[in-house]
Hints:
Low-confidence stretches: none
Oligomer: single chain
Structural class: alpha+beta
Mean pLDDT: 86
Radius of gyration: 29 Å
Amino acid sequence: MSHAEGVNVQRRRVLIASTAVIGAAGVAAVATPFVRSWTPSAKAEAAGAAVTQDIGSIEAGQMIVVKYRGKPIFVVKRTEEMLTTLDSVKSLLSDPDSDASLQPEYCKNPERSISPEILVVEGVCTHLGCAPNYRPDVGAADLGGNDWYGGFFCPCHGSKYDLSGRVYSGVPAPLNLPIPDYNMDGTILTIGEA
């Protein structure tokens, strides 16, 4: 009697087919979450979407913070006095003409903005990513006295920026504060769209 005589060929085929089906189902169960992880979540997609803000109620000299892509965006409504000081600090700045900074071409001007009275700038220090404080007080003794016409001060390592987000010379921050793409329609500010 040979060893092969007692083997049920039909049963063997059913077992092999069942094992293959169960294995394929297991691979699909493991692969599905992995493949889904390649597509961004709804929250991640929304984080990259443009953000709108009505800035009509901002008072002269006031700053608000709008969140865009996980970063604080400073929106400052500058006064006429603030705008006149921008030229006064030019000799104290590292990049007064914003040649090395990150900004849209339509903001390459002394005000670094579409509309001179509205500044829209990322509120992240270009040194190590701390959040600078808004310090509009002119002549602050702790920030240089007569050479301080207002702006932003990073408390982490002492970097200073003027009221256009341009960095002072001799501070740790290497670049001006970045300006995101934005547009304005009346009092509606849209960040993330040119």
